[in-house]
Write a structure and sequence with these properties.
Transfers a GMP moiety from GTP to Mo-molybdopterin (Mo-MPT) cofactor (Moco or molybdenum cofactor) to form Mo-molybdopterin guanine dinucleotide (Mo-MGD) cofactor. The chain is an alpha/beta fold. The protein has one domain: Spore Coat Polysaccharide Biosynthesis Protein SpsA, Chain A, CATH 3.90.550.10. The chain contains seven helices and nine strands, in the order βββαβαβαβαββααβα. The strands form two sheets. The chain has a seven-stranded mixed β-sheet, sandwiched between helices. The longest helix is centred in the middle third of the chain and has 12 residues. The protein starts with 5 loop residues before the first strand and ends in an 11-residue tail after the last helix.
Length: 216
């Protein structure tokens, strides 16, 4: 699969209720906005990139990528951002990542693409060992979606389904394990709360910092 046929989308359009309603994508991690870090990690992996946001649009536009608002009202969640992406892309595939996991894999796109091509699936998403139990934990928002899924996703949202995993499991899908020895155990650590953000910052200060591909 040609990476140029993938549009990357950083999802930053939620309510961030566990962040006190503050715009999570604009919170800083090691001194830089989370959404900007995500955009810079994703950009080298795909043909083009955009941001999904519903507030502070000028701040997101300053990161240098198109900003797409949800086509549905009232912050209905990640699936709404995915739908907005599928409605706008000109490429065959959409790859979504959340704005709040600043250490996601630099080879995310390649591994999801390889699985989708091998399985002839229309979507592929990540799975990694839980940091406490070691059991496989799904990370469905790290997801590669074929553009033909737009109608199915729109119908699902119209029917009131807002659970990402439930919808993905209803499609021909691939689950991709990120459990190799060289994989970062914090790759999918997300920062749902300010405490999560500070904890991951503390861990990252004592390890190699997240890559900023566009700064290289």
């Amino acid at each position: 699969m040609d990476p140029q046929q993938i549009t990357g989308l950083v999802l930053a359009g939620g309510r961030a209720s566990r962040f006190g309603g503050e715009d999570k994508g604009l919170q800083t991690f090691l001194g830089r906005p989370l959404a900007q870090i995500a955009l810079e990690r994703l950009t080298p992996q795909v043909g083009r990139c955009a941001l999904s946001a519903n507030r502070h649009l000028a701040d997101y536009e300053a990161f240098g990528a198109p900003v797409w608002r949800d086509s549905l009202p009232d912050f209905p969640g990640p699936l709404a951002g995915m739908l907005s992406g599928l409605e706008r892309i000109e490429t065959e595939w959409l790859l979504t990542v959340p704005c709040d996991s600043p250490r996601f894999p630099p080879d995310l796109a390649r591994r999801l693409c390889d699985a989708a091509a091998r399985d002839r699936s229309t979507c592929a998403f990540a799975c990694a060992p839980d940091q406490v139990t070691g059991d496989p934990r799904m990370h469905p928002v790290f997801c590669l979606l074929h553009r033909d899924l737009r109608a199915s996703l729109g119908a699902s949202l119209s029917a009131g389904e807002h659970r990402v995993m439930r919808w993905l499991q209803s499609q021909p899908h691939s689950i991709v394990a990120f459990d190799l020895p060289a994989d970062d155990p914090q790759a999918f650590a997300n920062t749902n709360t300010p405490d999560d953000l500070r904890r991951l910052e503390a861990l990252s200060r004592h390890a190699a910092p997240p890559e900023h591909p566009l700064d290289a």
